[in-house]
TrEMBL record:
GO cellular component, one term: ribosome
The organism of origin for this protein: Cairina moschata
Region (Disordered): 1-22
PANTHER family per the UniProt record, alphabetical: 40S RIBOSOMAL PROTEIN S27
Family: Belongs to the eukaryotic ribosomal protein eS27 family.
Cofactor info, note text: Binds 1 zinc ion per subunit.
Name the UniProt record assigns to this protein: 40S ribosomal protein S27
Amino acid sequence: MPLAKDLVHPSLEDEKRKHKKKRLVQSPNSYFMDVKCPGCYKITTVFSHAQTVVLCVGCSTVLCQPTGGKARLTEGKDCSFYEDRIPEMRLLSS
């Protein structure tokens, strides 16, 4: 009797739902973001699960605030960000 799921080649949705240590290849849920300040246009690198308030280096405006898990980008401001995963993730996904 064949299995309903392929255990060797799981789908990306199934892998994202699993705990970070229970995946086929262990990978973290966290990442770094390059956040651009809407006031002075300086770029600040912010950890996705930051536990402190992150301020802009140039104009000291609040870029993100901590929550229970992931840091929340400041609402009402156009904070653009670039998600930078750990380099090993790029090698595995391609």
